[in-house]
Amino acid sequence: MKKKYDLVVVGGGVLGTFHAYAAMDLGLKVALIEKNNAPQGATVRNFGQVVPSGMDSKWQAYGRESLRIYKEIQSKFDISVRQQGSVYLASNEEEVQLLEELAAINKQNDYSSQLLTKSQCLDKYDGLRSDYVKGGLFFPEEVIVEPRVMINKLHAYMKGEGLDLFFNKKITQCEPLADEVLLITAMGETFKAAKVMICNGSDFETLYPKTFQESDLVVSKLQMMSTKPQQNYRLQGSVLTGLSIRRYEAFEECASYKAIKAKESPDSLEKKWGVHILFKQACDGSVILGDSHEYASAKEKDLLGFDLNMDIDNFIIEESKKIMDLPNYDIQHRWFGMYSQCKTTDIYQKNMDDNIHIVTGIGGKGMTGSAGFSKENITKLYNKEECTL
């Protein structure tokens, strides 16, 4: 290929795509290369919620910028973004206390939230069980997306804006030259770029196997499922529950969090399988239920297997029934996603050369945090004025 790009991004998932988007926003000539005919990994196998509310203060800033970017794109091109808000539902007084503390933190951070009484929760969320909910915290700015739709529509939008997008091209060599980087595909095709960003763990492993083996990346396997369409039933936005309150990073900043966590049984099934219960209604009327977390080091990810653990699925369904009376709990689809993340840092970054940069391991923060993080990362990479998130 004769064209030389300012930036080639390897990996067409949400993290790579938003790095390409941020570079295009700076006026750079960008190519995005995806090894499959469409993204197949965590980007299309997640819950589809954009919830800065669940993140610590650093990542909430990225998530809030992501919200702005999602809404800006949606105003120009339909990528399936729906602003319906997110709610955390407390099941006991300890969880209510955490919600009250988080509401105070978000007020300090100037992030809009609203404490809901039990009756307000019951009025707002059809089917919510009175014997479960004690109160809620609602975040009106947050959005949901259809993951398998969003990334493909985002690619279509960016192509219209000038992105060169290549599918079914597996990069097997990445060679630094005097003033550029040469990329070679498995079929012998070549790409040249001033800089390269590698945003996919699989591509990272192929190109730099020793560095990958030495990394602190771990893989989390998450099981999710969707019901059959719910007739004459509407559930607004993301619904996160008591187990989410006890798991999400944002709550770790609450004063009571450590004492409350210390009381939990280490032998519970939700601890064993890393389960917290989430609900979201898809465009076809089905309700997505999840999810679980099983871990292995990235180099031993095959130990997690390719089967679904039906004990986990059945546990999620039974716990969900204690929270929400849906018209039906007939399951039409089941799947799992594999997300890479770091043991010691919140995202994996390594420079293999002045012009070759690896960014991966964003974990479950990808759908929420990628757009905002990518904007800052690209801004720093090109020494532009640092953006204020």
Question: Can you tell me about this structure?
Answer:
InterPro entries: FAD-dep_OxRdtase, FAD-dependent_OxRdtase_HpnW, FAD/NAD-bd_sf, G3P_Oxidase/Oxidoreductase. This is FAD dependent oxidoreductase TIGR03364. It comes from Arenibacter nanhaiticus. With 389 residues, the chain is of the alpha+beta class. The chain has a domain at 1-83 and 144-215 and 345-389: FAD/NAD(P)-binding domain. The chain contains 12 helices and 20 strands. Strands 5, 6, 7, 13, 14, 15, 16, 17 and 18 form a 9-stranded mixed β-sheet that branches. Strands 1, 2, 9, 10, 11, 12, 19 and 20 form an 8-stranded mixed β-sheet that branches. Helix 2 packs across helix 12. The longest helix has 20 residues, at 57-76. It is globular, with a radius of gyration of 21 Å. The relative contact order is 0.21. The mean pLDDT is 95.
